[in-house]
From TrEMBL:
This is GreA/GreB family elongation factor. SUPFAM superfamilies: FKBP-like (SSF54534). GO terms for molecular function: translation elongation factor activity. InterPro entries: GreA/GreB_C_sf, Tscrpt_elong_fac_GreA/B_C, Tscrpt_elong_fac_GreA/B_fam. It comes from the Bacteria. Keywords: Elongation factor, Protein biosynthesis.
Length: 138
């Protein structure tokens, strides 16, 4: 891990806490597992103001280039659930892949439980789109 902790911006941290509180409503095993892992990881995160966020940390609206466990390189944008569109490579922050990546940095490797089991994702590049999360998007 590039930084000693996962780094989350304050507003995004609140959004993630709210999403975790809905965990009991979901029946999908991989999704529940992702939410539970995120819940544990959020116990030991560094929460920072927007102006303190490192540019290479994945957050909502980041463009993320990853290498999958299947040696496929793809770029995705992590978005709020309403903007999710897998055909346009926009992954919801609450999808297992989005949950796996949020708060990690360029160069990190992340192990996460996916529907096909635990896999390692390599984060090759992180780019900020410039679009900041608005309060009304929470």
């Amino acid at each position: 891990m590039k930084y000693s902790h996962i780094i989350i911006e304050k507003k995004e941290f609140e959004l993630l806490k709210n999403l975790i509180s809905t965990e009991s409503y979901y029946k999908d095993k991989a999704y529940k597992s992702s939410l539970n892992k995120l819940k544990k990881e959020l116990e030991d995160v560094k929460i920072v103001d927007n102006n303190q966020m490192p540019e290479d940390v994945i957050r909502i609206n980041s463009l993320v280039t990853i290498q999958s466990p299947w040696n496929v390189t793809r770029t995705y944008q992590i978005v709020v659930p309403e903007q999710s569109d897998i055909r346009n490579n926009k992954i919801s922050v609450v999808a297992p892949m989005g949950l796996a990546l949020i708060g990690y940095a360029q160069g990190d490797e992340v192990e996460w439980e996916f529907p096909m089991g635990t896999k390692t994702i390599q984060i090759l590049e992180v780019e900020q789109t410039g679009k900041k999360l608005k309060l009304e998007e929470l």
